[in-house]
Structures are given as structure tokens and as C-alpha cells.
Amino acid sequence: MQQGLLESAQRDPAAAATFQAANALAGAAAQRGLFVQGQLAAGFAALERADRASALGAFTQALAASAGQAWWQRTSAAVARLGLASSRPFAQRDQALAELTAAIPVFEEASRITEDSEHRLYLARARARLAELGGPR
User: Fold this and answer.
1) Of residues 79 and 12, which shows the higher confidence score?
2) CA gap 106, 70 in Å, rounded
3) Taking a C-beta distance cutoff of 8 angstroms, is the pair 102, 96 a contact?
4) Residues 6+ apart with CB under 8 A from 61
5) pTM for the structure as a whole
6) Among 16, 22, 62, 134, which residue's Cβ finds the most Cβ atoms within 10 Å?
């Protein structure tokens, strides 16, 4: 199919412009996905170092870049929310509870529709943090 699009683009300037625009969109989406994954990794690394400020910054950026309704965008946003909830001190308990309340249903859904253990592990971690904070079960 891509070969056919490429051949059309070589013959038709309008098709060429469409092809270039599609490639640019695909590239931008891939770059955004890489950025999100990098920020999530940086956030969890900062948490391991007990650097809450850096973790909060990384998870906030990951959440902002995870906008969208596709399941992978929602799961990336849920991971960012879990990171935010894990980074917050007890004084910010209400914010952490809100983040966990938003993240847990996404992990539950992802656990039902995929066989990946990753979502189940995040779900367990989110529920454990919720229990630490004394939130609803």
C-alpha cells in the first residue's frame, strides 16, 4: 500500500503533499510517544533516588504529552498519574487520591483487554498506594 501511495505521490503534486503530511503526522506521534516513555522512565528513576521534585516534573510532562483517547495514550496517562501519586508527600494526599482514582480504572480496563502483565503490575502498585493513603477500596 505504501508503495502505491509513493507512486501516486510521484505523479501527483497533491498526492505528494498528502503523503508528506501523513509522514509528518506519523513521525510527530512517534516522537511524542518516545518523549512520554522517556519522561516516565525519568520520573521513576527520580523516585528511586527520592527526588520528588524531579519525579513530579517528569510525570507532569508525561501526563501533558499523553493527551488522547487511544488506549495506549490513556494507559501512558495512567502511568503518569500513578507516578504523580507516588511522588506526592502525604500533605498532598487529596491530589494523590484523585490521581489514583483516575488511573485505577484505566489499568483495570487494560488488564482485561491485553495479556500484558505490565498493566496488572501497575494496577497492583496503584492499589497499594491507595491503601497507604487510606483511600477507598
Assistant:
1) 79
2) 11
3) no
4) 35, 39
5) 0.78
6) 62
